[in-house]
């Protein structure tokens, strides 16, 4: 049997992927799964998670930084991440709480780096500064053809009676989103020890089960705690 300290070790899990792949829904569902095992978990997002990071999020997604270029946006995301890590991620993990984040540093590498053309040297330097050694224990990369993803988003909006306007990144053309998808696939392939690539082109319940199975496979203590 695992020792108590092993059983209670806090984990940091991030979700990544293109627009409309269902990250937010699956973050909520994973949180519920963990809480059903009596694991205290914190749900957060990037950019965001703290008041200052949320202010940066609003500034960027409104398109107010677009004219500054991808390099400036990468710096803004890193500033938000630095605050997020120091004020929420690090204290939560230290308190024994799992942290589940809708996006983290891989999004900057995919959006501004691999898709936006920002030099890898800058992206890596910003990661070193903002992460402060808080690399996720596991990253779930949800993959879907962006054309299918946007069709789903439009269908959900129609069913809910909403009008889609698109934020800073959602309004990019489909070719841009296909390059973004390739970026996330490249990140997943380059980091197999951390990233788990899962097709998001399946029913929500089936996707939830696939993610939960992957999480349990990565953290065997979940089985031990459940059986204890």
**What class do helices, strands and sheet pairing give?**
alpha/beta
CATH superfamily, called what? P-loop containing nucleotide triphosphate hydrolases
* Number of DSSP-assigned strands: 5
Strand content: 5-15%
Describe the strand arrangement of the main beta sheet, using strand numbers: 2-3-1-4-5
Whole-number average pLDDT? 90
CATH fold type = Rossmann fold
The number of domains: 1
**CATH architecture descriptor name:** 3-Layer(aba) Sandwich
Largest sheet: 5 strands, parallel
The residue fraction in helices comes out at 55-70%
CATH class placement: Alpha Beta
Give me the strand/helix succession. HEHEHHEHHEHHEHH
What labels describe this entry?
228 residues; alpha/beta; Rossmann fold; 10 helices; 12% strand; globular; ATP-binding; P-loop_NTPase; transferase
Structural features, described:
It catalyses: dTMP + ATP = dTDP + ADP. Pfam families: Thymidylate_kin. Keywords: ATP-binding, Kinase, Nucleotide biosynthesis, Nucleotide-binding, Transferase. The protein has 228 residues and is α/β, with parallel strands linked by helices. It has one domain (4-227): Rossmann fold. Helices cover 57% and strands 12% of the residues. The protein has helices at 4-7, 23-36, 51-61, 70-94, 105-115, 120-131, 146-160, 174-190, 204-218, 221-227, and strands at 12-17, 41-45, 98-102, 138-143, 195-199. Helix 3 packs antiparallel against helix 4 and helix 4 runs parallel beside helix 6 (120-131). The protein is globular, with a radius of gyration of 18 Å.
